[in-house]
Protein backbone atom coordinates (compact mmCIF):
# COMPACT_ATOMS: atom_id res chain seq x y z
CA UNK A 1 0.00 0.00 0.00
CA UNK A 2 2.11 2.85 -1.32
CA UNK A 3 -0.86 5.21 -1.42
CA UNK A 4 -3.72 5.48 1.08
CA UNK A 5 -6.82 5.62 -1.12
CA UNK A 6 -9.98 7.36 0.03
CA UNK A 7 -13.40 7.03 -1.51
CA UNK A 8 -14.71 10.42 -2.71
CA UNK A 9 -17.53 10.19 -0.16
CA UNK A 10 -14.99 9.91 2.65
CA UNK A 11 -13.33 13.22 1.90
CA UNK A 12 -14.77 15.93 4.14
CA UNK A 13 -15.52 19.37 2.72
CA UNK A 14 -13.16 20.69 5.34
CA UNK A 15 -11.41 19.30 8.37
CA UNK A 16 -9.55 16.05 8.95
CA UNK A 17 -10.54 12.54 7.89
CA UNK A 18 -10.68 9.62 10.30
CA UNK A 19 -9.71 6.15 9.05
CA UNK A 20 -10.19 2.76 10.62
CA UNK A 21 -9.74 -0.82 9.41
CA UNK A 22 -7.16 -1.90 6.86
CA UNK A 23 -5.82 1.55 6.01
CA UNK A 24 -5.45 2.65 9.64
CA UNK A 25 -3.76 -0.62 10.44
CA UNK A 26 -1.31 -0.10 7.59
CA UNK A 27 -0.46 3.42 8.76
CA UNK A 28 0.03 2.27 12.35
CA UNK A 29 1.62 -1.16 11.96
CA UNK A 30 3.41 -1.23 8.60
CA UNK A 31 4.41 2.40 8.25
CA UNK A 32 4.80 2.83 12.00
CA UNK A 33 3.61 6.43 11.80
CA UNK A 34 3.54 8.84 14.70
CA UNK A 35 1.72 12.17 15.02
CA UNK A 36 3.02 14.76 12.48
CA UNK A 37 4.25 12.04 10.10
CA UNK A 38 3.01 12.29 6.52
CA UNK A 39 1.55 9.57 4.30
CA UNK A 40 0.74 9.65 0.59
CA UNK A 41 -3.00 9.95 0.04
CA UNK A 42 -5.23 9.84 -3.03
CA UNK A 43 -8.93 9.98 -3.77
CA UNK A 44 -10.42 7.34 -6.08
CA UNK A 45 -10.66 8.95 -9.54
CA UNK A 46 -9.46 12.16 -7.99
CA UNK A 47 -6.49 14.12 -6.69
CA UNK A 48 -3.40 12.95 -4.85
CA UNK A 49 -1.52 14.58 -2.05
CA UNK A 50 -0.55 13.78 1.49
CA UNK A 51 -2.09 13.34 4.88
CA UNK A 52 -0.47 14.50 8.10
CA UNK A 53 -1.17 12.27 11.07
CA UNK A 54 -2.99 14.29 13.72
CA UNK A 55 -3.88 11.47 16.03
CA UNK A 56 -3.53 7.69 16.34
CA UNK A 57 -5.50 5.59 18.73
CA UNK A 58 -6.39 1.91 18.83
CA UNK A 59 -7.13 1.08 15.20
CA UNK A 60 -8.00 4.67 14.24
CA UNK A 61 -5.99 7.34 12.47
CA UNK A 62 -6.92 10.97 11.95
CA UNK A 63 -5.32 12.70 8.97
CA UNK A 64 -5.17 16.32 7.90
CA UNK A 65 -5.44 16.20 4.08
CA UNK A 66 -3.64 18.25 1.46
CA UNK A 67 -4.74 17.13 -2.01
CA UNK A 68 -2.59 19.33 -4.20
CA UNK A 69 -1.86 17.11 -7.25
CA UNK A 70 -4.60 16.78 -9.84
CA UNK A 71 -5.89 13.33 -10.79
CA UNK A 72 -3.44 11.58 -13.12
CA UNK A 73 -4.69 11.07 -16.69
CA UNK A 74 -6.52 7.81 -17.40
CA UNK A 75 -4.08 5.25 -18.83
CA UNK A 76 -4.01 5.07 -22.64
CA UNK A 77 -4.12 1.27 -22.76
CA UNK A 78 -7.30 -0.84 -22.72
CA UNK A 79 -7.66 -4.58 -22.38
CA UNK A 80 -10.07 -7.08 -23.90
CA UNK A 81 -9.77 -10.25 -21.84
CA UNK A 82 -11.51 -13.57 -22.24
CA UNK A 83 -13.01 -14.10 -18.78
CA UNK A 84 -10.49 -16.10 -16.72
CA UNK A 85 -11.31 -18.32 -13.75
CA UNK A 86 -12.25 -16.32 -10.64
CA UNK A 87 -9.03 -16.88 -8.67
CA UNK A 88 -6.99 -15.65 -11.62
CA UNK A 89 -9.41 -12.79 -12.35
CA UNK A 90 -8.84 -11.36 -8.87
CA UNK A 91 -5.10 -11.30 -9.33
CA UNK A 92 -5.35 -9.93 -12.88
CA UNK A 93 -7.62 -7.07 -11.79
CA UNK A 94 -5.02 -5.97 -9.24
CA UNK A 95 -2.22 -6.37 -11.77
CA UNK A 96 -3.91 -4.36 -14.51
CA UNK A 97 -4.85 -1.58 -12.11
CA UNK A 98 -1.22 -1.46 -10.99
CA UNK A 99 0.18 -1.50 -14.52
CA UNK A 100 -2.41 1.00 -15.72
CA UNK A 101 -5.38 0.33 -17.97
CA UNK A 102 -8.29 2.59 -18.83
CA UNK A 103 -10.93 -0.07 -19.55
CA UNK A 104 -11.15 -3.82 -19.14
CA UNK A 105 -13.67 -5.67 -21.30
CA UNK A 106 -14.26 -9.13 -19.82
CA UNK A 107 -15.65 -11.13 -22.72
CA UNK A 108 -16.94 -14.58 -23.45
CA UNK A 109 -15.14 -16.96 -25.82
CA UNK A 110 -15.60 -20.55 -26.85
CA UNK A 111 -12.97 -21.79 -24.43
CA UNK A 112 -14.26 -19.79 -21.46
CA UNK A 113 -16.04 -22.06 -18.99
CA UNK A 114 -19.68 -21.03 -18.57
CA UNK A 115 -19.36 -21.32 -14.79
CA UNK A 116 -16.91 -18.40 -14.69
CA UNK A 117 -19.75 -15.99 -15.44
CA UNK A 118 -21.76 -17.39 -12.52
CA UNK A 119 -18.90 -16.83 -10.06
CA UNK A 120 -19.77 -14.28 -7.39
CA UNK A 121 -17.01 -11.87 -8.36
CA UNK A 122 -18.46 -11.65 -11.89
CA UNK A 123 -22.18 -12.03 -11.19
CA UNK A 124 -22.06 -9.37 -8.48
CA UNK A 125 -19.40 -7.25 -10.21
CA UNK A 126 -17.14 -7.39 -7.16
CA UNK A 127 -14.17 -5.90 -8.99
CA UNK A 128 -13.57 -2.74 -7.03
CA UNK A 129 -11.62 -4.07 -4.03
CA UNK A 130 -9.18 -5.92 -6.31
CA UNK A 131 -8.69 -2.87 -8.51
CA UNK A 132 -8.05 -0.67 -5.46
CA UNK A 133 -5.23 -2.99 -4.34
CA UNK A 134 -3.50 -2.36 -7.65
CA UNK A 135 -4.00 1.40 -7.49
CA UNK A 136 -2.62 1.51 -3.94
CA UNK A 137 0.44 -0.39 -5.17
CA UNK A 138 1.08 1.85 -8.18
CA UNK A 139 0.08 5.11 -6.48
CA UNK A 140 -2.60 5.81 -9.06
CA UNK A 141 -6.15 6.97 -8.40
CA UNK A 142 -7.76 6.18 -11.76
CA UNK A 143 -10.04 3.21 -11.33
CA UNK A 144 -10.19 1.11 -14.51
CA UNK A 145 -13.68 0.73 -15.93
CA UNK A 146 -14.59 -2.95 -16.02
CA UNK A 147 -17.47 -4.27 -18.12
CA UNK A 148 -18.72 -7.83 -18.64
CA UNK A 149 -19.81 -9.09 -22.06
CA UNK A 150 -21.25 -12.57 -21.78
CA UNK A 151 -21.91 -13.01 -25.51
CA UNK A 152 -18.94 -12.84 -27.85
CA UNK A 153 -20.77 -12.03 -31.06
CA UNK A 154 -22.73 -8.97 -29.89
CA UNK A 155 -19.50 -7.72 -28.34
CA UNK A 156 -17.46 -7.84 -31.55
CA UNK A 157 -20.34 -6.94 -33.86
CA UNK A 158 -22.18 -4.22 -31.94
CA UNK A 159 -20.36 -3.07 -28.82
CA UNK A 160 -16.71 -2.90 -29.89
CA UNK A 161 -16.90 -1.33 -33.40
CA UNK A 162 -18.16 2.11 -32.24
CA UNK A 163 -15.17 2.32 -29.87
CA UNK A 164 -12.47 1.40 -32.36
CA UNK A 165 -11.78 4.94 -33.53
CA UNK A 166 -10.21 5.57 -30.11
CA UNK A 167 -7.39 3.15 -30.87
CA UNK A 168 -4.57 3.59 -33.34
CA UNK A 169 -3.06 0.28 -32.24
CA UNK A 170 -5.28 -2.81 -31.92
CA UNK A 171 -3.37 -5.88 -30.83
CA UNK A 172 -4.58 -9.44 -30.83
CA UNK A 173 -2.37 -11.58 -28.61
CA UNK A 174 -1.29 -14.96 -29.92
CA UNK A 175 1.95 -16.89 -29.37
CA UNK A 176 4.22 -16.55 -32.40
CA UNK A 177 6.86 -14.28 -33.91
CA UNK A 178 7.33 -10.92 -32.24
CA UNK A 179 7.46 -8.84 -35.39
CA UNK A 180 4.36 -6.78 -34.64
CA UNK A 181 5.84 -4.97 -31.66
CA UNK A 182 9.05 -4.28 -33.53
CA UNK A 183 7.12 -3.00 -36.53
CA UNK A 184 4.81 -0.78 -34.48
CA UNK A 185 7.81 0.52 -32.60
CA UNK A 186 9.71 1.37 -35.75
CA UNK A 187 6.59 3.13 -37.05
CA UNK A 188 6.65 5.41 -34.04
CA UNK A 189 4.35 3.56 -31.64
CA UNK A 190 0.83 4.67 -30.84
CA UNK A 191 -0.27 8.27 -30.64
CA UNK A 192 -3.77 7.82 -29.20
CA UNK A 193 -4.82 4.64 -27.41
CA UNK A 194 -3.90 0.95 -27.59
CA UNK A 195 -6.25 -1.97 -27.09
CA UNK A 196 -4.92 -5.48 -26.47
CA UNK A 197 -7.11 -8.60 -26.79
CA UNK A 198 -5.96 -11.60 -24.75
CA UNK A 199 -7.66 -14.99 -25.06
CA UNK A 200 -8.56 -17.76 -22.62
CA UNK A 201 -6.35 -20.64 -21.50
CA UNK A 202 -6.30 -22.74 -24.66
CA UNK A 203 -6.51 -19.67 -26.88
CA UNK A 204 -9.10 -18.04 -29.12
CA UNK A 205 -10.73 -20.25 -31.74
CA UNK A 206 -10.29 -19.40 -35.42
CA UNK A 207 -13.74 -17.80 -35.65
CA UNK A 208 -12.90 -15.43 -32.81
CA UNK A 209 -9.48 -14.59 -34.23
CA UNK A 210 -11.02 -13.80 -37.61
CA UNK A 211 -13.54 -11.40 -36.09
CA UNK A 212 -10.72 -9.43 -34.42
CA UNK A 213 -8.66 -9.39 -37.62
CA UNK A 214 -11.70 -8.05 -39.53
CA UNK A 215 -11.85 -5.19 -37.02
CA UNK A 216 -8.29 -4.14 -37.82
CA UNK A 217 -6.54 -5.96 -35.00
CA UNK A 218 -3.02 -7.19 -35.76
CA UNK A 219 -1.55 -10.32 -34.26
CA UNK A 220 1.01 -9.49 -31.59
CA UNK A 221 2.90 -11.84 -29.36
CA UNK A 222 5.40 -12.17 -26.58
CA UNK A 223 7.17 -14.90 -28.49
CA UNK A 224 6.38 -18.53 -29.22
CA UNK A 225 6.11 -19.56 -25.57
CA UNK A 226 2.63 -20.32 -24.27
CA UNK A 227 2.10 -18.26 -21.10
CA UNK A 228 -0.52 -18.41 -18.38
CA UNK A 229 -3.09 -15.67 -18.80
CA UNK A 230 -1.90 -13.62 -15.83
CA UNK A 231 1.69 -13.69 -17.09
CA UNK A 232 0.57 -12.85 -20.62
CA UNK A 233 -1.41 -9.87 -19.34
CA UNK A 234 1.63 -8.41 -17.55
CA UNK A 235 3.96 -9.18 -20.46
CA UNK A 236 1.69 -7.66 -23.10
CA UNK A 237 0.66 -4.57 -21.11
CA UNK A 238 4.35 -3.92 -20.50
CA UNK A 239 5.00 -3.92 -24.23
CA UNK A 240 1.87 -1.92 -24.99
CA UNK A 241 3.01 0.85 -22.63
CA UNK A 242 6.35 0.92 -24.40
CA UNK A 243 4.53 1.78 -27.62
CA UNK A 244 2.86 4.84 -26.11
CA UNK A 245 4.75 7.89 -27.21
CA UNK A 246 6.32 9.62 -24.24
CA UNK B 1 0.69 -28.74 -18.72
CA UNK B 2 1.26 -28.23 -22.44
CA UNK B 3 4.27 -30.55 -22.43
CA UNK B 4 4.74 -33.78 -20.48
CA UNK B 5 8.24 -33.43 -18.99
CA UNK B 6 10.36 -36.48 -18.20
CA UNK B 7 13.47 -36.54 -16.07
CA UNK B 8 16.47 -37.82 -18.06
CA UNK B 9 16.69 -40.83 -15.72
CA UNK B 10 13.14 -41.81 -16.64
CA UNK B 11 13.85 -42.16 -20.34
CA UNK B 12 14.54 -45.83 -21.20
CA UNK B 13 17.33 -46.72 -23.61
CA UNK B 14 14.67 -48.42 -25.68
CA UNK B 15 11.07 -49.34 -25.20
CA UNK B 16 8.13 -47.44 -23.75
CA UNK B 17 7.98 -45.30 -20.62
CA UNK B 18 5.40 -45.77 -17.89
CA UNK B 19 4.08 -42.73 -16.03
CA UNK B 20 2.05 -42.46 -12.86
CA UNK B 21 1.04 -39.61 -10.60
CA UNK B 22 0.44 -36.05 -11.75
CA UNK B 23 1.47 -36.53 -15.37
CA UNK B 24 -0.54 -39.72 -15.89
CA UNK B 25 -3.53 -38.04 -14.30
CA UNK B 26 -3.19 -35.08 -16.65
CA UNK B 27 -3.04 -37.36 -19.71
CA UNK B 28 -6.07 -39.36 -18.55
CA UNK B 29 -8.31 -36.73 -16.97
CA UNK B 30 -7.45 -33.37 -18.53
CA UNK B 31 -6.39 -34.46 -22.02
CA UNK B 32 -8.82 -37.41 -22.01
CA UNK B 33 -6.39 -39.51 -24.07
CA UNK B 34 -7.18 -42.95 -25.43
CA UNK B 35 -4.77 -45.57 -26.81
CA UNK B 36 -3.02 -44.35 -30.01
CA UNK B 37 -3.48 -40.66 -29.05
CA UNK B 38 -0.32 -38.55 -29.04
CA UNK B 39 0.91 -36.10 -26.39
CA UNK B 40 3.79 -33.60 -26.52
CA UNK B 41 6.75 -34.87 -24.53
CA UNK B 42 10.10 -33.38 -23.52
CA UNK B 43 13.09 -34.40 -21.46
CA UNK B 44 14.43 -31.95 -18.87
CA UNK B 45 17.39 -30.15 -20.49
CA UNK B 46 16.95 -32.43 -23.49
CA UNK B 47 14.98 -33.15 -26.61
CA UNK B 48 11.29 -32.72 -27.34
CA UNK B 49 8.96 -34.93 -29.33
CA UNK B 50 5.79 -36.86 -28.76
CA UNK B 51 4.53 -39.90 -26.94
CA UNK B 52 1.93 -42.28 -28.33
CA UNK B 53 -0.37 -43.77 -25.72
CA UNK B 54 0.04 -47.54 -25.73
CA UNK B 55 -1.95 -48.30 -22.64
CA UNK B 56 -3.91 -46.56 -19.90
CA UNK B 57 -4.95 -48.18 -16.68
CA UNK B 58 -5.94 -46.83 -13.29
CA UNK B 59 -3.54 -43.94 -12.75
CA UNK B 60 -0.90 -45.28 -15.13
CA UNK B 61 -0.04 -44.38 -18.73
CA UNK B 62 2.41 -46.17 -21.01
CA UNK B 63 3.89 -44.05 -23.80
CA UNK B 64 5.94 -44.93 -26.85
CA UNK B 65 8.44 -42.07 -27.19
CA UNK B 66 9.72 -40.30 -30.29
CA UNK B 67 12.13 -37.52 -29.29
CA UNK B 68 12.96 -36.02 -32.65
CA UNK B 69 13.45 -32.31 -31.88
CA UNK B 70 16.74 -31.25 -30.34
CA UNK B 71 16.77 -29.37 -27.03
CA UNK B 72 15.87 -25.71 -27.56
CA UNK B 73 18.69 -23.24 -26.97
CA UNK B 74 19.04 -21.85 -23.44
CA UNK B 75 17.22 -18.50 -23.20
CA UNK B 76 19.47 -15.46 -23.71
CA UNK B 77 18.05 -13.55 -20.74
CA UNK B 78 19.29 -13.86 -17.14
CA UNK B 79 17.78 -12.44 -13.98
CA UNK B 80 19.31 -11.03 -10.80
CA UNK B 81 16.53 -10.93 -8.24
CA UNK B 82 16.59 -9.72 -4.65
CA UNK B 83 15.22 -12.73 -2.79
CA UNK B 84 11.43 -12.31 -2.49
CA UNK B 85 9.24 -13.83 0.20
CA UNK B 86 8.74 -17.58 -0.25
CA UNK B 87 5.15 -17.51 -1.51
CA UNK B 88 6.13 -15.01 -4.19
CA UNK B 89 9.37 -16.84 -5.00
CA UNK B 90 7.41 -19.98 -5.92
CA UNK B 91 5.22 -18.11 -8.34
CA UNK B 92 8.14 -16.17 -9.80
CA UNK B 93 10.17 -19.34 -10.41
CA UNK B 94 7.30 -20.77 -12.47
CA UNK B 95 6.84 -17.48 -14.29
CA UNK B 96 10.49 -17.04 -15.22
CA UNK B 97 10.78 -20.65 -16.41
CA UNK B 98 7.70 -20.07 -18.56
CA UNK B 99 8.93 -16.75 -19.96
CA UNK B 100 12.44 -18.11 -20.49
CA UNK B 101 15.54 -17.30 -18.47
CA UNK B 102 18.94 -18.94 -18.53
CA UNK B 103 20.07 -18.16 -14.98
CA UNK B 104 18.43 -16.73 -11.89
CA UNK B 105 20.69 -15.19 -9.24
CA UNK B 106 18.74 -14.88 -5.98
CA UNK B 107 20.64 -12.25 -4.05
CA UNK B 108 20.53 -10.52 -0.73
CA UNK B 109 19.84 -6.81 -0.37
CA UNK B 110 19.30 -4.44 2.51
CA UNK B 111 15.52 -4.61 2.21
CA UNK B 112 15.37 -8.40 1.94
CA UNK B 113 14.09 -9.93 5.19
CA UNK B 114 16.67 -12.25 6.72
CA UNK B 115 14.01 -14.87 7.35
CA UNK B 116 13.52 -15.37 3.60
CA UNK B 117 16.87 -17.16 3.38
CA UNK B 118 15.82 -19.54 6.16
CA UNK B 119 12.62 -20.54 4.35
CA UNK B 120 12.59 -24.20 3.34
CA UNK B 121 12.34 -23.47 -0.38
CA UNK B 122 15.59 -21.48 -0.20
CA UNK B 123 17.49 -23.38 2.52
CA UNK B 124 16.82 -26.70 0.81
CA UNK B 125 16.99 -25.31 -2.74
CA UNK B 126 13.54 -26.65 -3.55
CA UNK B 127 13.28 -24.77 -6.82
CA UNK B 128 12.97 -27.56 -9.32
CA UNK B 129 9.27 -28.42 -9.02
CA UNK B 130 8.29 -24.76 -9.47
CA UNK B 131 10.57 -24.36 -12.48
CA UNK B 132 9.17 -27.51 -14.08
CA UNK B 133 5.64 -26.09 -13.85
CA UNK B 134 6.79 -23.14 -15.95
CA UNK B 135 8.57 -25.31 -18.50
CA UNK B 136 5.49 -27.52 -18.88
CA UNK B 137 3.43 -24.39 -19.48
CA UNK B 138 5.78 -22.90 -22.08
CA UNK B 139 6.74 -26.23 -23.73
CA UNK B 140 10.41 -25.68 -23.01
CA UNK B 141 12.87 -28.22 -21.60
CA UNK B 142 15.71 -25.90 -20.52
CA UNK B 143 15.74 -25.73 -16.74
CA UNK B 144 16.93 -22.30 -15.55
CA UNK B 145 20.00 -22.45 -13.32
CA UNK B 146 19.15 -20.97 -9.93
CA UNK B 147 21.84 -19.89 -7.47
CA UNK B 148 21.53 -18.26 -4.05
CA UNK B 149 23.86 -15.45 -2.93
CA UNK B 150 23.20 -14.56 0.67
CA UNK B 151 25.77 -11.76 0.83
CA UNK B 152 25.33 -8.81 -1.50
CA UNK B 153 28.87 -7.51 -1.50
CA UNK B 154 30.71 -10.72 -2.46
CA UNK B 155 28.10 -11.18 -5.16
CA UNK B 156 28.68 -7.83 -6.85
CA UNK B 157 32.41 -7.68 -6.13
CA UNK B 158 33.55 -11.25 -6.79
CA UNK B 159 30.88 -13.45 -8.30
CA UNK B 160 29.19 -11.20 -10.84
CA UNK B 161 32.13 -9.36 -12.49
CA UNK B 162 33.66 -12.46 -14.19
CA UNK B 163 30.29 -13.16 -15.82
CA UNK B 164 29.64 -9.68 -17.17
CA UNK B 165 31.36 -10.21 -20.52
CA UNK B 166 28.44 -12.51 -21.44
CA UNK B 167 26.04 -9.58 -21.44
CA UNK B 168 25.87 -6.75 -23.92
CA UNK B 169 22.83 -5.33 -22.12
CA UNK B 170 22.83 -4.96 -18.33
CA UNK B 171 19.63 -3.54 -16.97
CA UNK B 172 18.96 -2.28 -13.50
CA UNK B 173 15.21 -2.04 -12.85
CA UNK B 174 13.92 1.07 -11.15
CA UNK B 175 10.62 2.92 -11.59
CA UNK B 176 11.13 6.01 -13.73
CA UNK B 177 11.22 7.17 -17.33
CA UNK B 178 11.25 4.43 -19.95
CA UNK B 179 13.98 5.87 -22.13
CA UNK B 180 16.44 3.02 -21.69
CA UNK B 181 14.34 0.45 -23.50
CA UNK B 182 13.65 2.88 -26.31
CA UNK B 183 17.31 3.75 -26.58
CA UNK B 184 18.50 0.13 -26.56
CA UNK B 185 15.87 -0.71 -29.10
CA UNK B 186 16.90 2.07 -31.45
CA UNK B 187 20.51 0.93 -31.07
CA UNK B 188 19.54 -2.50 -32.38
CA UNK B 189 18.85 -4.34 -29.15
CA UNK B 190 21.16 -6.96 -27.68
CA UNK B 191 23.23 -9.35 -29.75
CA UNK B 192 24.50 -11.67 -27.01
CA UNK B 193 22.78 -11.91 -23.64
CA UNK B 194 20.77 -9.59 -21.40
CA UNK B 195 20.83 -9.50 -17.62
CA UNK B 196 18.12 -7.72 -15.64
CA UNK B 197 18.49 -6.85 -11.93
CA UNK B 198 15.22 -6.47 -10.01
CA UNK B 199 15.17 -5.27 -6.41
CA UNK B 200 13.12 -6.15 -3.34
CA UNK B 201 9.77 -4.69 -2.30
CA UNK B 202 10.84 -1.22 -1.22
CA UNK B 203 13.60 -1.08 -3.81
CA UNK B 204 17.38 -1.25 -3.80
CA UNK B 205 19.20 1.17 -1.49
CA UNK B 206 21.53 3.76 -3.02
CA UNK B 207 24.64 1.75 -2.15
CA UNK B 208 23.31 -1.27 -4.04
CA UNK B 209 22.24 0.81 -7.02
CA UNK B 210 25.67 2.42 -7.21
CA UNK B 211 27.42 -1.00 -7.27
CA UNK B 212 25.30 -2.06 -10.25
CA UNK B 213 25.91 1.22 -12.06
CA UNK B 214 29.67 0.79 -11.53
CA UNK B 215 29.41 -2.61 -13.24
CA UNK B 216 27.96 -1.05 -16.37
CA UNK B 217 24.29 -1.59 -15.60
CA UNK B 218 21.92 1.05 -16.96
CA UNK B 219 18.70 2.02 -15.23
CA UNK B 220 15.68 0.63 -17.02
CA UNK B 221 12.07 0.84 -16.03
CA UNK B 222 8.55 -0.10 -16.92
CA UNK B 223 7.43 3.42 -16.20
CA UNK B 224 6.89 5.44 -13.05
CA UNK B 225 4.39 3.01 -11.51
CA UNK B 226 5.60 0.95 -8.55
CA UNK B 227 4.84 -2.70 -9.31
CA UNK B 228 4.84 -5.78 -7.13
CA UNK B 229 7.94 -7.87 -7.71
CA UNK B 230 6.16 -10.67 -9.56
CA UNK B 231 4.50 -8.18 -11.92
CA UNK B 232 7.78 -6.34 -12.43
CA UNK B 233 9.54 -9.61 -13.30
CA UNK B 234 7.01 -10.44 -16.02
CA UNK B 235 6.93 -6.87 -17.33
CA UNK B 236 10.71 -6.52 -17.51
CA UNK B 237 11.44 -9.98 -18.93
CA UNK B 238 8.87 -9.26 -21.62
CA UNK B 239 10.74 -6.11 -22.60
CA UNK B 240 14.13 -7.81 -22.34
CA UNK B 241 13.05 -10.51 -24.81
CA UNK B 242 11.94 -7.80 -27.20
CA UNK B 243 15.51 -6.49 -27.24
CA UNK B 244 16.95 -9.83 -28.32
CA UNK B 245 17.61 -9.70 -32.01
CA UNK B 246 15.44 -12.22 -33.84
Q: Determine the N-to-C terminus distance of chain A.
A: 27 Å
Beta fraction of the residues of chain A?
A: 25-35%
CATH superfamily of the largest domain in chain A: SPOUT methyltransferase, trefoil knot domain
Instruction: Determine the oligomeric state from the structure.
Output: homodimer
Give a written overview of the molecule.
2 copies of one chain form a homodimer. Chain A contains 9 helices and 11 strands. With about 250 residues, chain A is α/β, with parallel strands linked by helices. Chain A folds into 2 domains: about 70 residues, Ribosomal Protein L25, Chain P (Beta Barrel); about 170 residues, 3-Layer(aba) Sandwich (Alpha/beta knot), CATH 3.40.1280. In chain A, strand 9, helix 7 and strand 10 form a beta-alpha-beta unit. The first copy, chain A, is elongated and about 60 Å long. At the A-B interface, helix 2, helix 7 and helix 9 of A face helix 2, helix 7 and helix 9 of B.
Describe the structure concisely.
Two copies of one chain form a homodimer. Chain A starts with a strand and ends with a helix.
List keywords for this structure.
homodimer, 246 residues, alpha/beta, Ribosomal Protein L25, Chain P, Alpha/beta knot, 2 domains, six-stranded parallel β-sheet, five-stranded mixed β-sheet, 34% helix, elongated
Topology readout:
The structure is a homodimer of 246-residue chains.
Chain A (H helix, E strand, L loop, with lengths): L3 E3 L10 E4 H10 L7 E6 L4 E10 L2 E10 L7 E6 L3 H14 L3 E5 L7 H4 L1 H4 L4 H11 L6 E5 L2 H8 L7 E7 L5 H8 L6 E6 L7 H9 L3 E3 L8 H15 L3
Parallel strand pairs in A: 1-3, 6-7, 6-10, 7-8, 9-10, 9-11
Antiparallel strand pairs in A: 2-5, 3-4, 4-5
Helix pairs in contact in A: 2-5, 2-9
